[in-house]
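Weekend entry, working from home. Most of the wet-lab plans are on hold until the incubator is repaired, so I used the time to fold the two sequences that have been sitting in the queue since the last round of cloning. Logging both here for the record. First:
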Amino acid sequence: MTPPPDAARVVARALSRRAPAERAQFLRELLAHTAAGLVIIEGDRAAGEAVYRLADAVVARGAGR
């Protein structure tokens, strides 16, 4: 049985199939659906923590510019 591809490869493949102008919207929608899935699987608190960590990483990356 072949193991499933890792998430990074799935996302990279999906991005490569879209025009450059469509990629940011795809990622925004992916983030929204992922957060909603975490709410269902792990609950509000865990999903909120994941989103908070993502936002924190974005802010930290912006601070380095």
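Second, folded right after the first finished:
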Amino acid sequence: MRIIGPEDLVFGVDNVDACRAFLRDYGLTEIALDGAGHRFEALDGTALTIRHQDDAALPAPLPTATKLRQTVWGCEDQATVDAIAGELSKDRQVTRNADGSIATVDDVGFELVFRVTTRRPIDLVPERVNSPGAAAGRRPNEIGVDYTADPRPRTLSHVVYFTPDMAKMERFYVDRLKFVVTDRFNNAGPFLRPQANDDHHCLFFIDTPPHMQGLEHVAFHMQGPTEMMLAGTRMVNKGWESHWGPGRHQFGSNWFWYFNSPLSAHIEYDADMDKHDDDWQPRVLDGNAETSQLFLFRSTEKWYPGGPPAAP
């Protein structure tokens, strides 16, 4: 299954204006949609879409507090979309849309769309680093940090779900959609990448009680750690609350900085994620405060150890 990665997450929210303000400050480009919807794009066109929670255009909500309504996955070609339709229609309803995309649900009830990718090709410079003993990454007199820059997310990186049935979730994405496990936290879940993407992960699961099912966070790739720091500092200066970071994860090696958002999910900046091919052998660790990051400059209390909060 030549799935490339997540291309759009669709939300039904109670405070559209607060969500619009957050996503503009985060660095995404706002595009008005027909009706009352708003799409917020990264540089390659991957996006988050928000509508008011009562908008009839939205799929039905999960029976939890999550505001996520749908995850849209981009595929290499229509043949991949058709193959997914053929596989999933064996045991569930699959709706074919006029544009060739299909809509369905996974095995625990998350609404999904699969379509031929609409992401735009981007050809941008990487972050250039001067490292002793190696050729200089920047020219003489070229400054490494432009504090007046306007850092913009380049592409949607990954999605993390709270799921009430980890085994069922993994079987669906690995066995049915052919996602590849790159690494695993024994007490949380697997890191997954689709076949047409070599990022360490585009998808991760966290095992939770049923009342917590939904989106834990979504992340966008930045140019590098410097842009991530500039963007995160911009968010703090605009009054948004930092949740976790900045720091660097162990699995995936990606730099991170998470923010609380009015979408009832965390929104992450990340940078410099590992790449993997089919020769990679997955690692297995217990997830805890030590294994989830190499270092951390600012922290909030996490679940480790002790597990998720009890049901209300």
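Plan for Monday: verify the second prediction. The longest helix spans residues 225-237.
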